[in-house]
Write a structure and sequence with these properties.
Layout: H1 2-5, H2 9-13, H3 28-37, H4 46-54, H5 59-72, H6 84-90, H7 94-99, H8 101-112, H9 115-120, H10 125-135
């Protein structure tokens, strides 16, 4: 993982932006993606990882990065609410989990090892519903 963490999103995707997004013409999503493409994986914040996962960017790399955060703080918070990183991970499309059962197994292990914290969680109901959905898997 050392070599990956020292690369930027742009290097990993082998994609560069042709022009700088302008505040007037481009959305927040485009401007933020542009900003994040130049940052090394090792320098991404919790919010950066949450945002990129929500955009479906480099999930095979960023979800394990999210796990490193979630193992320390299951309800790590980006810019929105306690548990928004976990919720972003759990809302990834089902096809991803089908193709990456090892990553799914890791998520299930993290969830099941934090049952006490989950029972005490007082955040958005959508997070609790997603947790229940994942814990109920085989």
């Amino acid at each position: 993982m050392g070599t990956i963490s020292n690369k930027t999103i742009s290097e990993l995707l082998k994609k560069t932006w042709q022009s700088t997004p302008s505040a007037e013409e481009d959305s927040y999503v485009e401007r933020n993606l542009y900003r994040l493409y130049g940052i090394k994986v090792s320098e991404l914040t919790t919010e950066d990882i949450r945002f990129l996962i929500n955009q479906g960017v480099l999930l095979e790399i960023l979800i394990p990065q999210a796990f490193r955060i979630l193992e320390k703080d299951l309800f790590a918070e980006g810019d929105f609410y306690a548990g928004d990183l976990l919720n972003a991970v759990m809302e990834v499309e089902e096809l991803f989990w089908t193709h990456h059962p090892d990553i799914l197994t890791t998520l299930l292990r993290i969830l099941r090892s934090n049952m006490d914290k989950i029972k005490e969680y007082d955040g958005p109901r959508s997070v609790r519903r997603n947790i229940e959905k994942f814990i109920d898997r085989k």
